[in-house]
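Service request form, structural biology core

Requester: graduate student, group of Dr. S.
Request type: structure prediction, single chain
Budget code: on file
Notes: please return the result as structure tokens.

Sequence provided:
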Amino acid sequence: MRGQLECHVILRTSWVYGVYGINLLKTVLRLARERDELRIVADQRGCPTGTADIAQAVLAIAPLLARHEPVWGTYHFAGQGATTWYDFASAIVDAQAAITHKRPSVIPISTSEYPTAAQRPINSELNSSRFGTVFGIKAKDWRVRAREVTATLLS
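Core staff response, request fulfilled:
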């Protein structure tokens, strides 16, 4: 009989964004409407992950667990490609500008110029290749998914 700790699937993800909830993509869109300049941290790297991709990942895991397949473990699952907060925000502003024709300046700043109570890692990139091998799917490239979410929010 397996112990409870052996039978688990943990899905680690990062920089989550989507149509619902509070997230950086939605914040950037709001600020881009309100301001002429956005100051965004440019020295932290990660893999933005769309909520639609996370939902697909969970749906890929569920049938295997229901069949008691031996897929237990901890997996990374993140959007394809790594970027900085600055490049992520710039891509969002570009996608918004293509629709609204309003483009504020996006200014890169350092982490030290944007103090927060929570310390953020400089590099939070996740390698999702094991998830892809085991479950047969991968998240969309963050640039593609961010454009889709932006278009949905602005439609």
